[in-house]
């Protein structure tokens, strides 16, 4: 769910499917920003012998908008290519892999990093090695150390990693898509049952992560490190995309399909859950192909979200004030489409201007929190979502509560939120490997040997 299988067409093309985007001032290196884009959802750890990898035929990009128009001013491009060392075996590895340079790894993958700024491209690094997947203790002993070898430094104070990680997103997918059920509150549901703890539907799932850590000065409009939170140039917009070439032709001689022509965007992601639960199904694929700068046409689904109308119906009597509220949801428009302007939250803003665009908005002048709260800004932690997004932020709870009316008083002080709005949640937490305190921050992926069908391993 943040953006796992969020649209009909991209759900058929997982290698190009964005799942989550994160952007935050690095807690251990506060002069840098960490940007993370995840792809390939719901990876089964024991999915061999053709284990998961990035698409050699996909152009992956992380975009920065710092000009106030919702358009990409800076893009980091990632292109991959895999090799087969021994063409006479079906095996992914022919022995233990203790180094990313080991020849026992039969299908290594390499990538390049290119920075594009205002149409000018510059290759930053070539032939960087991605790590293998976590096959198991015999094939990939000491996986954490092995993955650490795939953290590459380039330039000064810049790092990149591309490879498998534990999915850091958590949500009760099995429950929430069953007619909007929230297990902790299902006793109040239209079709009631006893309250229960939430179940993380991403338990045991891995993803493929592209993580980039660069100086703040690489991303701001004027190339400086802002210190004033209220300075308009302290805010950047972040989103990620995947693109494929325009046409696909099957080659009889090679026995494979080849792509031709210019690249066309097939997936994108900024704010979590935007396409998932706001954009109507009939428009999801088109949304995935459009740039954020054209999101004005989707604003109607933000200012009058379908879920806000469903909550009072699904939970009779729990949301009477929300049911009676008929004004356009200016609070959600600010959070998701423009950023929060000055004067709404004391001492804070992440406003990028009037252009409505779905992007994560990060005020880089806000320092990392000394005591982080996973509920972010609504809990008084201005370093968290929707000011960017950290890997541990509980975005499902934040967005459900916002849709339920908790944030309406920010723009309409006369409105009194329903009591349920500040308590509603899906009741989950991360049940995969612990987050790391250092780059790339997402935890060690679940291993194939360690996992069992129906009982995925947490690490």
Question: What does this entry look like structurally?
Answer:
This protein is α+β, with helices and mostly antiparallel strands and 459 residues long. The chain has one domain. Helix content is 13%, strand content 24%. The strands form 2 sheets. Strands 3, 4, 5, 6, 10, 11 and 12 form a 7-stranded antiparallel β-sheet that branches. The protein is globular, with a radius of gyration of 22 Å.
Q: Please give the count of helices.
A: 9
Helical proportion, percent range: 10-25%
Reading the helices and strands in chain order gives EEEEEEHEEHEEEHHHHHHEH
How large is the share of residues in beta strands?
15-25%
Shape: globular
Structural class: alpha+beta
Biggest sheet statistics: 7 strands, antiparallel
Q: What Rg is obtained from the alpha carbons, in whole angstroms?
A: 22 Å
End-to-end Cα distance: 21 Å
Determine the mean pLDDT: 95
Low-pLDDT residue intervals, each spanning 5 or more residues: none
How many E strands? 12
The number of distinct structural domains comes to 1
